[in-house]
Request: fold
Amino acid sequence: MSLIRLIAPSGYCVNQAAAARGIKRLQEAGYQIENQQAVARRFQRFAGTDEERLAEIQQLASLSPECDIVLAVRGGYGATRLLEKIDFPRLGHALRARTPVICGHSDFTAIQLALLAQCGAITFSGPMLAGNFGAEEFDDYTWQHFWQAITQSRFSLSWQNTAPACSVSGTIWGGNLAMLVSLIGSPWLPAIDGGILVVEDINEHPFRVERMLLQLHHAGILRRQKALILGSFNGATVSDYDAGYDFNEMRAMLSERLSIPVLSGLPFGHEPQTVTLPLGAFGELKHNGYESVLSISGHNVIR
Reply:
């Protein structure tokens, strides 16, 4: 029986019932779930002390051969506290020899981008144990797209959106926007030229999203990309004060200001329905004005 190893490098899992449902679903899919004690572990608001959570990341260098998938329990906050002490040379050596599917999103983006920057390791921005696999009504779209991404060496995603036609290719990277921006100027942000940057976030008003994207622009990061794809940005409410300023207006402003295509509408992020993206893989993006197709290859898969 194949193994899924749980890791909890960020916040304490408040919804223990959801985590239990997620474990049950994955067991029913034929997996043995390892390191379940990480779910209940707690120190203050975190899923354990910094030392405990760091140890879980370091242990990725010595996984058993049966371990196919490493799955984050949840996001929250805490991953960036670990970055300075992670032994990236040791991890890189191990992950080049054998790379399991490492999957998560939200706060976990910090570790994923650091692994890409320091080790060249491709990880998957996708569902997590509690919030996705443990949802009361699990989404078939999320389930199918997760297994598609981790078992098919080449796959495509398509979605509707209105933007000028374009055709570009490059490295797919990104994840949670706030976490990505927090790494600017650090050794843990990958230096990607000619990439396809895909970002998402939750509970951020459009002006905050705009501010973070402009920070990427002012830092020279966006101008080095081939395209920017905006995933899900849910959980924020505009008010009368905004006077018509909303996400679509923000996107239109960015499209006028940036010299690269800005696409939106990809179901990716803090939503029940989300695709899974291998960060560091190769992407070919074709958009005809109303439909986008992103073909992805070059990532590690399970057999």
